[in-house]
Amino acid sequence: EKGRDRFVGSTPQEVLQSVFGYPDFRSLQAQAVTGIMDGQDTLVLMPTGGGKSICYQIPALCRAGMGLVVSPLIALMDDQVAGLRQLGINAAALHSELENEEASKIRADLAAGRIDLLYVSPERLLSPGTLDRLTRQPISVIAIDEAHCISAWGHEFRPEYRELAALPRHFPGVPRIALTATADQRTRDDILTALDMPHARVLISSFHRPNLNIAALPKASELRQLTTVLERHKEEACIVYCGSRARTERIAASLRERGWTALAFHAGLSPIEKRAALLRFRSGEPIVIVATVAFGMGIDRPDVRAVIHLDMPASPEAYYQQIGRAGRDGLPSDTVLLYGGEDMARARYWLEQSNAPDSEKRIMRSRLEAMIALTETTGCRTQALLHCFGETLSEPCGHCDNCRHPVITFDGTESARKFLSAVYRTGQHYGALHIIAVLRGKRTDAVERNRHDTLSVWEIGKDKPEPFWRSVVRQLIARGALKSEGQYGGLALNNEIARPILRGEESIQLRADATAELEKGNTSRS
Ligand code: ADP
Ligand code: ZN
């Protein structure tokens, strides 16, 4: 029997266990679910990974009618739908990227009352045809995900979200739940006003995880940096995140050669391989899982002692969720992010190349820039991370890398000008290594072939070692003075930011990377 209202009559607790397989609600979830079951409008502020979806999924099933979920990001919708279908829930997503065939299948299912939960983009929901179809359905709850998109105050404003104010008119008496991971007061007020739910119950969870020791350092010798962190956690469980499947395989193999028990985990594994990896991870043995973001669902090992990123995540949200898999038991745990300028430039380049709609690109761009700023921050990292979610930590945490070893900055104007000139003089399509070779007067094949040893910038940076220049490039990329010129990592000037520096109109402070420590991957320099 797969009728839509098959869970009506079961308690939320029963559905949580029988459908989702979790023994208990987290405390905020229980409050949200109880309120919605009673028809109460609710605003939930919870970090990514905190368990927001359960707050509306369970009432959607336990109340009569279909659950409606407004979501601004197609990729997120598709992930949610796939996850729910695996649990035997009839979920579907209506958005602009659907094939005609899929869309008509969903319309048929809708008309027949077969859908438990429908995800829909805001513009789609309020289009006359869809609205007409949906208002003919009994609706159990309306969830507005990423509700901060309604606020023009934030960086992720979506004008279509404003139209959601009309929801109560179209769906009178249906309880609404707005959810977001951005929690500052201004955004919160905007959401309540724009959705016209002044009496909503507001549930806020803190994002602070005081047992996480956050550190981030520029990539130098990646594998050495990685093993140095792992050495501190020899008999324990660690997760290493990489940006691609191939990289997880390669890194896991290198670790095994060096005597570690390491397994790769990514979406390309067969179901049997995945299950085997998860079983070993959960067994409690010391193990290093080298994974893509596919390693996330069902990670419930409480004693993960370190999460290491070899590639920069695309947003503070993703980063927070991934480091959050460390130290669930509340004991001190390490998180180390290795980052590099090329990675930043490449991430920006691919984002611009993607054919996501502009409105989505804008959201992803602001998240990526926030992530880049987080890696380069010279202040307390815990404060900076919480700040991304609108939470203020009044004192520096005292245990992140920047707190323990205050960052030294220096006037980098002259060095920045030398580097930017060299990019300009060589024609704006060479990678960082070539530019550094020119600055340091190193005669490589490419230098000789292009006669770059005849340029005015030849050898003008000889007095500084290569790691110094790598650090300068990275920070120039992070500031946006340099950008990727194509997919091969060639660098070009971003005139708006680079010109004033080149002309000497702007001086810049750079952070001095502790280069000797980078080689060792040492984050606890005591
Ligand atoms: P969010 O939407 O806030 O980012 P999700 O709803 O995706 O978070 O949930 C994050 C993770 O927490 C998921 O892996 C989910 O399976 C797990 N989770 C959620 N609620 C519970 C619970 N009550 N007990 C155990 N795990 C849970
Ligand atoms: Zn700190």
Protein described:
The structure is a single chain. The protein has 526 residues and is of the alpha/beta class. The chain is 43% helix and 15% strand. It contains 24 helices and 17 strands. The strands form four sheets. A seven-stranded parallel beta sheet has the order 3-4-2-5-6-1-7, sandwiched between helices. It has a six-stranded parallel beta sheet with strand order 8-13-12-9-11-10, with helices on both faces. A two-stranded antiparallel ribbon has the order 14-17. α2 runs parallel beside α3 (52-62), α15 runs antiparallel to α16 (358-376) and α15 packs parallel to α22 (466-479). It starts with 11 loop residues before the first helix and ends in a 6-residue tail after the last helix. The model has no long low-confidence stretch (mean pLDDT 91). Bound molecules: adenosine-5'-diphosphate and zinc ion. Adenosine-5'-diphosphate (ADP) is lined by residues 22, 25-26, 29, 46, 48-54, 297.
Main β-sheet, spatial strand arrangement? 3-4-2-5-6-1-7
Question: In percent, how helical is the residue content?
Answer: 40-55%
The structure class reads: alpha/beta
Specify Rg, calculated over alpha carbons.
25 Å
Q: What's the number of helices? A: 24
Number of strands: 17
Average pLDDT taken over every residue:
91
In what range is the share of β-strand residues?
5-15%
Low-confidence stretches: none
Biggest beta-sheet profile: 7 strands, parallel
* Backbone shape: globular
Each distinct ligand: adenosine-5'-diphosphate, zinc ion
Distance between the termini: 63 Å
EC number: 5.6.2.4
Protein name: DNA helicase RecQ
Cofactor: Zn(2+); Mg(2+)
Domain Helicase C-terminal: 222-372
